Amino acid sequence: MATQVLVTGAGGFIGSHLVEALVDKGYKVRAFVRYNARNDWGWLENVPCRREVEVYTGDIRDYDSVRDAMRGVETVFHLAALIGIPYSYRSPQAYIRTNVEGTYNILQAAREEGVRVIHTSTSEVYGTARYIPIDEEHPLQAQSPYAATKIAADQLALSFHRSFGLPVVVVRPFNTYGPRQSARAVIPTIITQALAGRFPVRLGNLAPTRDLNFVRDTVEGFITVGLSENTVGEVVNLATGREISIADLVQTIGRVMGIEIPVQGDAARVRPERSEVGRLCGDNRKAWELTGWTPRYSLEEGLRSTADWFRDNRHLYKADLYNV
Q: What are 55's strand-pairing partners?
């Protein structure tokens, strides 16, 4: 009998790709999506495996629905979170309720039900790199309310492992991109403006560097690292070990799309100076040593696949609006 797993945040960008990958590998998947009056399942509405997935509608902030969704599963991949950094400046309390209290609900329900927890972290918890590459021992420094709530959630998850013996794995992906990503993120922002012919493309700070994972590599990392017997109680980076500045990223996307992409600065898109994470480049040796995971896609391969998808689905995005 196939293993039953729960995926929270299943209607989102990474979550929907994870659901597809788990179904392809033979898992029985229960997908937790946020309740809404339209019964809209987000990106799960159009995935090929939609009819093979049990969709559960609830709210990660509500313990009752989380506990109910947890019944009968062996593992939970916990991805549900608020992730937009600019919006965390506007509404920090919403991030506390979703990212911290929501994670508590997952952990406590898992403790009651005897479920393994694969908790999603983020490279933002490291802040601007103090050394390169960033390994899992790098100091944590919150440069945004979003990052602060993710540090709190990570530490809460690890505390449940240490205090109660709950099998917890903290998976820490660096910057993931690919089909279905929100236009809040820089790669969809560049591509959607370019496809709409809105030149010059409007962006924030071009100097920061990022370590970019194609979503298929991130999803494979979640499964490989999350389910390994070697990773319980561990924090594990999912990174490429390569960094690229936003300025160079624009040029790379232009080459992949076969166009010139002129850029204009937009003050509305610039983070507060002390909140901007200036440099991210991750160390993935721990993932390799414990599980054998390593990224397979080059940046150019991933960007080409991403640009093709956005070209076919440009009608789903509002290139003329800045997504906070």
A: 31
Tell me which DSSP letter residue 100 carries.
I
Using 50, 70 and 90 to split pLDDT, how confident is the model at 200?
A: very high
Q: How confident is the model at residue 2 (pLDDT cuts 50, 70, 90)?
A: low
CB atoms within 10 A of CB 234: 18
Cα 178 from chain centroid?
11
Triad 118, 121, 125: Cα angle to 5°: 160
Among the listed residues 144, 140, 141, the one whose alpha carbon sits nearest the alpha carbon of residue 90: 144
Q: Is the dihedral of CA 150, 155, 160, 162 positive or negative?
A: positive
pTM: 0.97
Q: What are phi and psi of 194, to 5 degrees?
A: -65, -45
Place of tokens 């005897």: 114
Burial zone of 130 (CB within 10 Å; 0-12 exposed, 13-18 middle, 19+ buried) = exposed
| Banded model confidence at residue 24, pLDDT cuts 50, 70, 90 | very high
Cβ neighbors of 235 (< 8 A, separation 6 or more) are 121, 136, 154, 158, 170, 172
Three-class DSSP category at 1:
coil
Q: Measure the N-to-C terminal CA separation of the chain; round to a whole number of Å.
A: 44
Q: From CA 183, how far away is CA 197, in angstroms rounded?
A: 16
Sorted by sequence, the CB contacts under 8 Å of residue 107 that are 6+ apart come out as 117, 156, 157, 160, 166, 168
- Return d(Cα 231, Cα 130) in angstroms, integer: 25
Sign (positive or negative) of CA dihedral 82, 11, 9, 208: negative
Per-residue model confidence as pLDDT tens digits over 82-131? 999 999 999 999 999 999 999 999 999 999 999 999 999 999 999 999 99
Burial label, 206 (beta-carbon count in 10 A; 0-12, 13-18, 19+):
middle
